């Protein structure tokens, strides 16, 4: 099958467009496909997706990290130990 754009080279890239429930198949050579696919929006990479998710939840994680257990606070106050003492003695 020849490229539907240049009608010279073999079509090796096959695209299926679905617009308003109407399916249309398109067939291009590598060179013509580059020109056609440049008009499509770029899909986000897995790294972009992960970065976006982390940025969305990071304020909540920061806020959660400030929360302390009331029982641990009262225990430290009653024993006179602070968090640094626990870490130095291998308790957390």
Fold blueprint:
Layout: E1 13-19, E2 22-28, H1 30-37, H2 46-65, H3 70-79, H4 83-88
Biggest sheet record: 2 strands, antiparallel
* Relative helix content: 40-55%
**Total beta strands:** 2
Strand order in the largest sheet = 1-2
Please provide the ordered H/E string of secondary-structure elements. EEHHHH
Describe this structure as you would to a colleague.
By secondary structure, this protein is α+β, with helices and mostly antiparallel strands. The protein has one domain. 48% of the residues lie in helices and 15% in strands. Strand 1 (13-19) and strand 2 form a beta hairpin. It is rod-shaped.
Task: From the structure above, extract its key features.
single chain; 92 residues; alpha+beta; two-stranded antiparallel sheet; 2 strands; 15% strand
Please give a quick description of this structure.
This protein has four helices and two strands. The protein has 92 residues and is α+β, with helices and mostly antiparallel strands.
């Amino acid at each position: 099958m020849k490229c539907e754009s240049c009608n010279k080279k073999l079509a090796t890239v096959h695209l299926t467009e679905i617009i308003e429930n109407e399916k249309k198949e398109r067939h291009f050579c590598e060179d013509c496909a580059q020109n056609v696919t440049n008009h499509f929006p770029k899909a986000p990479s897995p790294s972009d997706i992960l970065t976006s998710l982390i940025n969305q939840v990071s304020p909540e994680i920061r806020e959660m990290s400030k929360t302390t257990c009331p029982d641990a606070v009262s225990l430290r106050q009653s024993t006179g130990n602070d968090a640094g003492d626990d870490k130095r003695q291998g308790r957390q």
